[in-house]
């Protein structure tokens, strides 16, 4: 069965990546990490957050976004990029079974050149409070992953 893929571009916090990996195991999704990262994958904080599930993560790593695109050659309608200022809500799209859900680093989001090359594929998670800028990366990934699988679980 085809499932969406989670892509973290330049993640900085090992605990978030570990928690995202755990979500990927729960939902049978692949986790793709795009370098550079703010830690090494062998960092014990990654494994602590992923608990004993980390060995079950279907993990792929790429040295750059360009290397990922060259290797995977995704269709435009597969790509869903998430940013706090994305013009469309993550509730809007019908996610294909092979969706690629892309998230940026915790402090700066996605690189500007990546955003510029995929402007029509930007989404955000709506928030009711105007005091909050963004959610924790692991929480955001979980919300999006479950929305992408809505009605498909």
Molecular structure report:
This protein is an alpha/beta fold and 153 residues long. It has a single domain (5-148), classed as SPOUT methyltransferase, trefoil knot domain (Alpha/beta knot, 3-Layer(aba) Sandwich). Helix content is 31%, strand content 18%. A 7-stranded parallel sheet has the order 3-2-1-6-4-7-5. β1, α1 and β2 (30-34) form a beta-alpha-beta unit. The longest helix is centred in the N-terminal third of the chain and has 14 residues, at 14-27. The chain is globular. The N and C termini lie close together (11 Å).
Short description:
The chain is α/β, with parallel strands linked by helices and 153 residues long. The protein has a single domain, classed as Alpha/beta knot.
Descriptive key words:
globular; Alpha/beta knot; 7 strands; 31% helix; alpha/beta; 153 residues
SSE topology:
Elements: E1 5-9, H1 14-27, E2 30-34, H2 44-50, E3 58-62, H3 65-72, E4 79-82, E5 88-89, E6 100-103, H4 112-117, E7 122-124, H5 137-148
Parallel strand pairs: 1-2, 1-6, 2-3, 4-6, 4-7, 5-7
Helix pairs in contact: 1-2, 1-5
The CATH class: Alpha Beta
Uncertain ranges: none
Question: N- to C-terminal separation?
Answer: 11 Å
The CATH superfamily turns out to be: SPOUT methyltransferase, trefoil knot domain
Strand content: 15-25%
Number of helices: 5
């Amino acid at each position: 069965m085809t499932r969406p893929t989670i892509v973290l571009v330049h993640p900085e916090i090992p605990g978030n990546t570990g928690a995202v990996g755990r979500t990927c195991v729960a939902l049978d999704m692949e986790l793709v990490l795009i370098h550079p990262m703010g830690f090494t994958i062998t960092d014990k904080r990654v494994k602590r957050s992923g608990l004993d599930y980390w060995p079950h993560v279907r993990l792929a790593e790429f040295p750059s976004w360009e290397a990922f695109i060259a290797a995977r050659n995704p269709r435009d309608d597969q790509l869903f990029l998430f940013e706090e200022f994305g013009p469309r809500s993550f509730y809007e799209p019908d996610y294909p079974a092979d969706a690629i859900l892309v998230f940026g680093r915790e402090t700066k989001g996605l690189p500007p050149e990546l955003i510029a090359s995929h402007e029509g594929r930007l989404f955000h998670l709506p928030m009711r409070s105007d005091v909050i800028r963004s959610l924790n990366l692991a929480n955001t990934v979980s919300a999006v992953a479950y929305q992408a699988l809505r009605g498909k679980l």
